[in-house]
Design brief:
The complex is a heterodimer of chains A (116) and B (117). Chain A is mainly β and 116 residues long. Chain A is built from no helices and twelve strands. Helix content of chain B is 0%, strand content 55%. The chains are: A mainly beta (116), B mainly beta (117). At the A-B interface, strand 6, strand 10 and strand 11 of A face strand 9 and strand 10 of B.
Chain lengths: 116, 117
């Protein structure tokens, strides 16, 4: 079974600084998807960024970027120029979808607080 | 319209009640999902519908009964729930790619906060 580990239950960062959230996973599959989701205190989950395992290039979305290390099974999220609105729970998720089977696993989350 | 709506926002019910949660999207997505989320925990997948057919049931107790009347609507019927079923119930939708229910970008609703007394 796939597992997803977020080793930082809580983190804080000063506004305008950069922060990196870690995520590691365990799988024997070679083709899969990885996601970072954000859940602000209002509770609506939003996709932050996604990465296909077959793509070597790290995904970026504006201030959000990932460091995807497939061999190390690591998928960290970097938030640059942190803003107060970035305060939220961040969930790393692993998805494998193949013939006749699938696996969707979320990590336990990292609570990020951006401090003014 | 890139919104998933859920009603009601809050629901309090007794263990003998029957109630329903409703989810709606008008993005043309053909995959819809129900998740259960306990406080400070990640969401747990319950059901997936693809093209209005139930494609995944994560061994959810029968007191939860999903229904997908059309491509825009997803219901979750509740009956004889237990206090431990109290949670935030999230609905999500996504496109279906390549004939598989690939979890493309999922759009989540705000959730229904359910309390079972």
């Amino acid at each position: 079974a796939q597992t997803v580990t977020q080793s930082q239950p809580e983190m804080s960062v000063q506004e305008a600084e950069t922060v990196t959230l870690s995520c590691t996973y365990d799988t024997s599959e070679s083709n899969y998807y990885l996601f970072w989701y954000k859940q602000p205190p209002s509770r609506q989950m939003i996709l932050v960024i996604r990465q296909e395992a077959y793509k070597q290039q790290n995904a970026t979305e504006n201030r959000f970027s990932v460091n995807f290390q497939k061999a190390a099974k690591s998928f960290s999220l970097k938030i640059s120029d942190s803003q107060l609105g970035d305060t939220a729970m961040y969930f790393c998720a692993f998805l494998y979808s193949g013939a006749g089977s699938y696996q969707l696993t979320f990590g336990k989350g990292t609570k990020l607080s951006v401090i003014p | 319209d890139t919104e998933v709506t859920q009603t009601p926002k809050h629901l309090v019910m007794g263990m003998t009640n029957k109630k329903s949660l409703k989810c709606e999207q008008h993005m043309g997505h053909r995959a819809m999902y129900w998740y259960k989320q306990k406080a400070k925990k990640p969401p747990e997948l319950m059901f997936v519908y693809s093209y209005e057919k139930l494609s995944i049931n994560e061994s959810v107790p029968s007191r939860f009964s999903p229904e997908c009347p059309n491509s825009s609507l997803l219901n979750l019927h509740l009956h004889a729930l237990q206090p431990e079923d109290s949670a935030l119930y999230l609905c999500a939708s996504s496109q279906v790619a390549g004939g598989h229910t690939v979890f493309n970008e999922q759009f989540f609703g705000p959730g229904t906060r359910l309390t079972v007394l």
